[in-house]
Amino acid sequence: MGQALFSTLARDNTSSRRLHPEDSQYVEESWNTWFRTRKKGPHFARAVLVDTEDKVVNSVSQVQESSGSSWRYCRECRISSVGGGSGNNWAYGFHVKGPELHERVLECVRRQAEESDVPLAFLNLLSSSGGTGSGVGSYVVQELRHEFVFKKLVNVVVLPYSAGEVATQNYNTVLTLAKLYDMSDLHVVFQNDSLHRMCAALLGEKNTQLADMNHLMACKLASVFQPVQVYSGVSNIVSHLAAHPAFKMVTVKTAPHVSRVAEKFESILSWPVLLKHMKRSLRKVPSGSAEAVDWEIKQPLSKLPRSVVAQLVPSVTNMLFTRGCVPPDVETVSELSTRVPYCRWIPQEARLLHFHQPRRLLSHDKFITLVSNNNLVCHPLNAIVDKAWNTFAYKAYLHHYTKYGVQEDEFNEAFLKAERILQYYARMAKDSG
Ligand SMILES: Nc1nc2c(ncn2[C@@H]2O[C@H](COP(=O)(O)OP(=O)(O)O)[C@@H](O)[C@H]2O)c(=O)[nH]1
Ligand SMILES: [Mg+2]
Questions:
Q1: What is the domain partition of the chain in residue ranges?
Q2: Would you say the CB of residue 133 lies under 6 angstroms from ligand 1?
Q3: 3-state secondary structure of 356
């Protein structure tokens, strides 16, 4: 994921034509935020790559050395341990591999923090369902919190495919969520099923691979974190989106996404159509239906049936990013604050923030991003917590965890925590208008 994110940022900084005088400022700001730039040779990502498997880190190194890419992870910031893997076990990752690796990780982070003028925030990319991203990831985030008490911690959490992966993925996700929620400032949640569907449906990737999904995710993240015209800054993003400490999960909806073949023939969509499309992504799950319809994977339409407009989920807050030469007009944007339900306790003026950037993102004529704090995120999470609870009721696989210091009590607490988070979100509808 990290590899895809930094490659996307570098591509965005180098590929687009510079149409505006301010473009140089954008490019410079982005390079300085994400990379330690060098006059000669590839820039160094302000990042630490951590895995418990040598082979993973070595393969990233190999790709980087051979591809002549414009950036690299610097050598000492590629950290792995010998002995390999975390056995898809949060407890092993957290209690064995985390303590083994964290000093080296922290040392790199300290050095990078000193090198950058103002280290504003940490963006932690992790998967919740294996043992390394979840266990070592949780341990490292905990140590970052201890050491950088006042810095913003934003986690990008990838939820697993809902079926067909490892038996312990739901336990690991519950333990990760419970551990990370309070100590972090914001969670940007992705789910592999919906990334996969989006790659297959919109990008026409018949044999969708993790690499395709990572590029999609990277594009989404870049559309949030690349510079905007008025300084937004991570602190603003976090304090707007997580305005209430009980609600810290957001999803990132974006458009347009088209396959490379279709790109050439794609008609240019107007802002009102793109905005409608974002609004549609807030559509409620019909009662009785187990799964949310993934509106994001449909093509933007200029007209929406009335029922769609009426059936939107309430949001805590929303943040809109638009990128393209001409900004959308204020009235069109304001529909997202006046015609979308919000929690009543969020004042009108604190509901929606909009940022625009005239520079194109990755050469898209227009690109729109809605970062939304709403309860649609509960659908995959409820399913995960339910499945984990069913497994726990039979004490299945528990001995793998108790062996490494996670006892039944800790599981019970983690379930309570996860349920409490989800309950807050579930109650939102009653509080909205
Ligand atoms: N989107 C995405 N998901 C990934 C990637 N790598 C792993 N995953 C997901 O995360 C889960 C756990 O990853 P894995 O490498 O087995 O675990 P870990 O290394 O112990 O954290 C997998 O089952 C996938 O669902 C990736 O590069 N992209
Ligand atoms: Mg792995």
A1: 2-251, 254-376
A2: yes
A3: strand
CB of 165 closer than 6 angstroms to any ligand 1 atom:
yes
Q: Which residues, 6+ apart, have CB-to-CB distance to 307 below 8 Å?
A: none
pLDDT at residue 186 is higher than 90:
yes
Tokens of 323: 């990128």
Pocket-testing residue among 92, 158, 172, ligand 1, by greatest number of atoms within 8 A of Cβ:
158
Query: Cα of 22 to ligand 1 centre, how many Å?
Result: 38
Over the stretch 91-147, which tens digit does the pLDDT of each residue have? 999 999 999 999 999 999 999 999 887 767 999 999 999 999 999 999 999 999 999
What's the CATH code, domain 2-251?
Answer: 3.40.50.1440
**Cα torsion 3, 117, 120, 50: sign:** positive
Query: What is the DSSP secondary structure assignment for residue 348, as one 8-state letter?
Result: G
Question: What is the model's pLDDT at position 430?
Answer: 79
Atom index in ligand 1 nearest the CA of residue 130 equals 17
Q: Which fold has domain 254-376?
A: 60s Ribosomal Protein L30; Chain: A; (3.30.1330)
How does pLDDT run across 13-34, given as a tens digit for each residue?
A: 987 666 677 788 999 999 999 9
**333 φ, ψ to 5°?**
-65, -40
